[in-house]
Amino acid sequence: MRKIEVGFSPVFFNVYDSPNDSIVVIIDVLRATTAICTAFKFGVKEIIPVATIEEALSYKQKGYLVGAERNGLKLDGFDFGNSPYHYMGSNIKDQTIVLTTTNGTQAIETAKNAYKVVIGAFTNLSALCNWLAKQDKSVLLLCSGWKNKLNLEDSLFAGAVVNEITKLSEYDEISDSALCAKYLYNMAKEDPDRFLHHSSHRRRLAKLNLKQDIKYSLTLDLTDIIPILIDNKLVKMKI
Ligand code: 3SL
Questions:
Q1: Can you give the pLDDT at residue 202?
Q2: Counting runs of H as helices and runs of E as strands, what totals does the chain give?
Q3: Which of 28, 93, 100, 152 is the S-S candidate for 33 at Cβ 3.0 to 4.6 Å?
Q4: Ligand 1 atom, smallest distance to 101 CA
């Protein structure tokens, strides 16, 4: 039985039937999952997501390249923050990067024992949906939210995925959470940027002068790479 569910924040993970038996899509469009997709587009070999700053620091001390963000800001002493623009340089090609972010890498940690964990962003939407629709598995769209609270942009992206995959394939059950996200997306799809105008994280990033990150993160289909978690490392899925 193939179902589609949306977890509007990581705290919903265990609420769903057998989440560890589903494909879990981690969503943090502003900005962690967009930054991850960007790093793969620019040739990173693998990304090791870690939940804590202490873990990130210990990798840094071992000589790894490390991205670290809290509350939207790059942490001092690390190589990158969480802007997709930090992951566009030739310095990341074929490298291993360690990454910790406020919410996105926590959501990955929550879901790490699922059947498959993949990364979703507007920048890989079509590739992700085409792949999901071909899998004989239930899908849990897990929004990273903000400190365990729902946020609008991740919910919107979850709705975009529900919208697409239900056009491409038949699912046995589309949960109320999935319908809710889809209805939200259908209200917003003509102008997602405008729809998100009053959202809390958009305002937070705008205050930090990160409007170009928002614009980039809402751009569709810049890459067909789907990052997948294998042995606690994100790598480029072989399709
Ligand atoms: O929460 C996260 O993981 C980040 O995406 C937050 S921020 O966009 O870097 O502020």
A1: 87
A2: 9, 11
A3: 28
A4: 3
| Cα 61 to middle of ligand 1, angstroms | 23
pLDDT at 239 over 90: no
Domains of the chain: 3-229 (3.90.1560.10)
Q: What is the model's pTM?
A: 0.96
Q: Where are the beta strands (DSSP E) in the chain?
A: 3-7, 23-27, 46-49, 65-70, 73-74, 96-100, 116-120, 139-143, 173-174, 227-230, 233-236
Reduce the DSSP state of residue 120 to 3 states and report it. strand
Ligand 1 center–CA 103 separation, angstroms: 6
pLDDT digits (tens, 9 = 90+) for 40-98: 999 999 999 999 999 999 999 999 999 999 999 999 999 999 999 999 999 999 999 99
